[in-house]
Amino acid sequence: MGVISWIVIGLLAGLIAKALTPGRDPGGLIVTTLIGIAGGLLGGWLGKQMFGIDSIDGFFDLSTWIAAVVGSIILLLIYRAFTGGRSRRRA
Questions:
Q1: pLDDT by residue (tens digit) across 12-44?
Q2: Crossing angle for the helix pair 29-51 and 62-83, nearest 10 degrees?
Q3: CA 57, CA 74: separation in Å to the nearest integer?
Q4: pLDDT tens, 52-62?
Q5: Which residues have a Cβ under 8 Å from the Cβ of 11 and sit 6 or more positions away?
Q6: Residue 19: its pLDDT value, please?
Q7: In contact, 41 and 5? CB cutoff 8 Å
Q8: Contact 54/43 with Cβ under 8 angstroms?
Q9: Which spans in the chain are helix H?
Q10: 52-76: b or e for each residue (b if 16 or more CB lie within 10 Å)?
Q11: Which of 5, 39, 54, 87 is 20–30 Å from 69 (CA)?
């Protein structure tokens, strides 16, 4: 897969992860995309380690999307744990 497809999968997987996990999310579109891309990598790695399968096959494969969304949810929960309690106030 190319760089553009990784960005698109990252954005969509990050948005799906945000929609599936309740609560208020810190970060905007760029953070969502980065969480989605890293989540896809994490999900692919976990799929390989746990099940011995290559879960990142191609853009239109269901295993790619499932791995990306599951990995994104995991990273989103970790991200919330570190940044969720902080509130930013502008003067």
A1: 888 888 888 877 776 778 888 888 888 888 887
A2: 120
A3: 21
A4: 766 566 666 77
A5: 29, 32, 33, 36
A6: 86
A7: no
A8: no
A9: 3-20, 29-51, 62-83
A10: eeebbeeeeeebbbebbbbbbbbbb
A11: 87
